[in-house]
Amino acid sequence: MNSQTSITSLLFILLFILLPSSTAYFSQYVIPDCNFNNNTYTENSEYQHMLKDLLKRLNISTPGAGYSTAISYSVNRTNDVHGLAMCRGDLELPQGCSPCIQHAINEIGKLCPYMKNAAVFYDHCYLYYGNETFKGPDKMVGNHTLRYNINNITKVNREKFYKVREKLFSELFVEATNGTSSPKFFAIGEDSVSSDLSVFGLLQCIPDLATKQCKTCLDYHVKDLPEYAGFSAGFLSIGYSCFLRYENKLFYTKPTQPPSPPPEI
Ligand SMILES: *[C@@H]1O[C@H](CO)[C@@H](O)[C@H](O)[C@H]1NC(C)=O
Ligand SMILES: *[C@@H]1O[C@H](CO)[C@@H](O)[C@H](O)[C@H]1NC(C)=O
Ligand SMILES: *[C@@H]1O[C@H](CO)[C@@H](O)[C@H](O)[C@H]1NC(C)=O
Ligand SMILES: *[C@@H]1O[C@H](CO)[C@@H](O)[C@H](O)[C@H]1NC(C)=O
Ligand SMILES: *[C@@H]1O[C@H](CO)[C@@H](O)[C@H](O)[C@H]1NC(C)=O
Ligand SMILES: *[C@@H]1O[C@H](CO)[C@@H](O)[C@H](O)[C@H]1NC(C)=O
Ligand SMILES: *[C@@H]1O[C@H](CO)[C@@H](O)[C@H](O)[C@H]1NC(C)=O
Would the CB of 40 count as within 6 Å of ligand 1? Predict the structure, then answer.
């Protein structure tokens, strides 16, 4: 599919406009995806009204829950709008996610004007709406992956970097999918390559997949790391229903340590 090519070039344009110098690499990013297909709706159509209503409901339900879905039913059921929004799993809810969701619902119509299907991915949240549902094993991965690199790490540590990254993501994969993570299907972690280089990684699936589907989805992104991430110091791989990210800087909020138990008397 050549939509991937155009997405890639769009992302490169965004890279140069948006790359901040002092914060985490992807923190200022807005990655719109308007290219699901070219179906459009018109001003004042039933679809537009339903979409507005859908986004309002996602705006209310997502920040507290971290994830929510909604459907607006059309009168004759041939034009329903589906939507979902998800917060990055480490954020404190609702306050850590609410600004992102509000921003996303305000911007998506400008980023993808009149598109019947659209998505936008930000540092803190992800939003999709469309007349097509995309959940399901056949649509989860492939054909629609957005990938995004930043500069390579310096040569010295490359081999070790590769190994550390691979090990980190195999651990995060287990952590995200073995049923213990909170929120569901989420893992963050770091490992160090050298005294001045660490890898900070994150994996997350939308929580209403089956475990097996989440595994398939994450596996797809993880196994592509050598090919697509190479020696990049940071990488984002975004699919329909899961995503992978790493950087050489801390970009997520570490969980606060539970208070140590009182000493036994
Ligand atoms: C949508 O239209 C654009 C421009 O006409 C084209 O480049 C793109 O490939 C189309 N996308 C799909 C999914 O058909
Ligand atoms: C979505 O809308 C397009 C036309 O805009 C239509 O061709 C397609 O069948 C619709 N999809 C569903 C699942 O209704
Ligand atoms: C989204 O929710 C916030 C409050 O949480 C509200 O201030 C804002 O107006 C809402 N936006 C829309 C478009 O409903
Ligand atoms: C269903 O509604 C859509 C838009 O409101 C309209 O374009 C379409 O013709 C309707 N289909 C039927 C079968 O009534
Ligand atoms: C990608 O698209 C091709 C052709 O449209 C299809 O045969 C294939 O199953 C799709 N792959 C995935 C993973 O959806
Ligand atoms: C990173 O290194 C690969 C080969 O190792 C090279 O193809 C690529 O252009 C480099 N990327 C940057 C941003 O320097
Ligand atoms: C799941 O993974 C976590 C983190 O790696 C580990 O602590 C836990 O024991 C695992 N649980 C099961 C049931 O495998």
Answer: no
Given this model, what pLDDT does residue 143 score?
A: 53
**Domain 146-247: CATH architecture, name and number where available:** 2-Layer Sandwich (3.30)
- Compute the distance between CA of residue 130 and CA of residue 119 in angstroms, rounded to an integer: 9
223-256 per-position pLDDT tens digit = 999 999 999 999 999 887 899 999 999 999 998 8
**Angstrom distance (rounded) from CA 80 to CA 78:** 6
Choosing from 231, 235, 248 the residue with most ligand 6 atoms within 8 A of its CB, the one to mutate for a pocket test is: 231
Q: Which of 174, 164, 228, 229 is nearest to 200 (CA)?
A: 164
**For ligand 4, atom 12, which residue shows the shortest CA distance?**
76
Kindly state if the Cβ of 78 falls inside 6 Å of ligand 4.
yes
Structure tokens at 214: 């989440």
Can you name the CATH fold of 34-133?
Killer Toxin P4; Chain A (3.30.430)
Q: Whose CA is nearest to atom 1 of ligand 4?
A: 76
187 within 8 A of 215, measured Cβ to Cβ: no
Q: How far is CA 107 from CA 104, 115, 141, in A?
A: 5, 13, 25
Q: What is the pTM of this model?
A: 0.84
Ligand 4 centroid distance, CA of 46 (Å): 9
CATH 3.30.430.20 domain span(s) along the chain: 34-133, 146-247
Query: Does residue 61 have its Cβ closer than 6 Å to ligand 3?
Result: no
The pLDDT tens digits of the residues spanning 109-123 come to 999 999 999 999 999
Q: Which ligand has the nearest atom to the CA of 44?
A: 4
4 lines ligand 1 (CB under 6 A): no
